[in-house]
Amino acid sequence: MNAEKFGTFIAKCRKEKGMTQLELAEKLMVTDKAVSRWERGKGFPDIGLLLPLADALDLSLTELMCSERKSKEEHYPQDDTALAVLMESAVEMNRHKRNQDRNITWLACITMLITAGCIKIYGYGSIGGGLLAGAFLAFIPIGFYLLIKNRKDPAGRKVYSLFILFGMLLALLLFTYLNVDRLFLLWGSFLLFSILIGILND
């Protein structure tokens, strides 16, 4: 299933019904940010939300999954093949979401462990303090990951760029507090800014 086609179709159907993203979100008991994310093609609803979403937009499940409206005269195949296609699409949507969540978790854990190890080895603090520092620093790799995954989306690029800059600010404050060499901080910041600009200009 194509995420962008799916999102465009949802947005079109919602507007045809005169609903705002917030109104649709309230019907589904999710946030309007979740609806915005679907409509921008940056994610899929959970499998359990597909039927309520189809109902809210007056669509059949087949129409929702295929991202196109069918005329009343058209026959909806109910055989095993059609069901298999629907299930395959649902599984793919769920797999995509799980993969992204897993990658973000791994990035956060690796960043926390490396930071904690470095802080302990170089005598800047304890393991506990290092893990806390790593949690702050995790904003940077997670932001870069989300930025790269969503670099074709102008709104997403702005949000994730701010996410990265926030992480860099926290890192600078933390390392300044730990009395880390300022030349190292300067070069590290320059390198991160260069990478960020390179991604944004891609």
Automatic annotation (TrEMBL):
CDD domains registered for this protein in UniProt: HTH_XRE
Record-level Gene Ontology MF annotations: DNA binding
This protein's UniProt keywords: DNA-binding, Membrane, Transmembrane, Transmembrane helix
InterPro entries hit by this protein: Cro/C1-type_HTH, Lambda_DNA-bd_dom_sf, MFS_trans_sf
Transmembrane parts of this sequence: 104-123, 129-148, 160-178, 184-201
Pfam families: HTH_3
All residue ranges annotated as the HTH cro/C1-type domain in the record: 10-64
SMART domains in the record: HTH_XRE
Name used for this protein in its record: Helix-turn-helix domain-containing protein
Species per Swiss-Prot/TrEMBL record: Candidatus Blautia faecigallinarum
